[in-house]
């Protein structure tokens, strides 16, 4: 199992609905230097951790350079190689520098867009069990649909980094 500091706490960001990107009342969580990566197989290190915590449907790539969100699933992004600046929360969101070993956990509806990246930037993405991911662009029609689908997205059973007792389980609560 990849080495993770048991006392690790994520940074937390909450973004409001901007009229095109719905975002979510639950926070984006960013773990800095969360995973001690195997230098020869960093993607496999992340996949093993995410899989052990019940997150699957994994892929390897980067982060799209256009603004988008996922209205039917939550997403985790584990940085395997390189670094990037990603804006989370839409056009009025927050720019976050991420690098190898960092992990970002996005609740459904959270806008994200890669603004710049090193040539070797590589990410492993994964999702908790549920419907397949859909890439949604910010339009008024998509926003209206997302407001219906986001509240129906099930809560993950575990934090993809820290497991069933991880911070996500405490910090992500459905609005009452």
UniProtKB/TrEMBL annotation:
PANTHER family: BLR7373 PROTEIN, CUPIN TYPE-1 DOMAIN-CONTAINING PROTEIN. Signal peptide: none annotated. It comes from the Bacteria. This is Uncharacterized protein YjlB. The lineage of its organism: Bacteria, Pseudomonadati, Pseudomonadota, Alphaproteobacteria, Hyphomicrobiales. InterPro entries: RmlC-like_jellyroll, RmlC_Cupin_sf, UCP019307_cupin, YjiB-like. Gene3D superfamilies: Jelly Rolls (2.60.120.10).
